[in-house]
Amino acid sequence: MFDILPASAVPSERALAPTVVEAKNRCRDIFKKLPKTPERDSVLSALGRLGMSSLRRKIHHRGEPVRNALGARFADLMYVCDQAVVCRNHYVHGSAAACDYRVNFFDTVVFFTDTLEFVFGTSDLLQSGWDMNEWTKRYGGHSHRFGEYLNTYRESLAKLQALLGVSDGAPPVVLTGG
Question: Where along the chain do its domains lie?
Answer without folding.
Answer: 14-49, 55-164
